[in-house]
Amino acid sequence: MRILFVCHGNTCRSPAAEALVRKMAMDADLDLHLDSAGISADRLGAAPTPAMQDLAQKAGYNMAGLKARKTTRTDYDDFDLMIGMDNSVVAKLIADRPAQVRTRITGFMQYADASGPDEIADPWHTEDYPAAFDLIQKAAKALIVKLQSDQPRQ
Q1: Are strands 2-7 and 81-84 parallel, antiparallel or unpaired?
Q2: What pTM was estimated for this model as a whole?
Q3: Alpha-carbon Rg of the chain, whole angstroms?
Q4: What is the Cα–Cα distance from 108 to 86, expressed in whole angstroms?
């Protein structure tokens, strides 16, 4: 399965989601192709924010080498699933999806239990990187469980 994680600028939430899910998928022996992007072009080529990198590193995840990029038209053809970090990102992805493309688009918190928030607030604005990271971890674990349950039994 090919999954693209998307946030606004691709420097906080979506690269963290990519890094966390990548490690969890490797640990679970899931064959996934993962990437991340932003709906905005204002931070192209930037590394993930130091605050998010620090949180990820302390939790055992590696964000080294990730660089911000903007979503493109070809992403809709290249990925089976596009996961937005908040409702405005999901809405933008749906609005920009070409009519003939069937790429599935969801919010990341859709995979977590319903008792929490339905989106991950942008820590670039809230400055609450730990809260965003905790929600990303929660959604990532739930996504891995979902993907494992969808795997055919051998």
Answers
A1: parallel
A2: 0.95
A3: 14
A4: 8
| Euclidean distance between CA atoms 77 and 45, whole angstroms | 22
Q: How many Cα atoms within 13 Å fall on the side-chain side of residue 123?
A: 24
Condensed to tens digits (0 to 9), the pLDDT of residues 134-151 reads 999 999 999 999 999 887
What is the amino acid identity at position 71?
A: T
- Please report which residue ranges of the chain form alpha helices under DSSP H: 13-27, 50-58, 75-78, 87-96, 123-126, 129-150
Query: Which strands sit side by side in the sheet containing 104-107, from one edge to the other?
Result: 33-38, 2-7, 81-84, 104-107
Is the separation of the CB atoms in 80 and 56 below 8 Å?
no
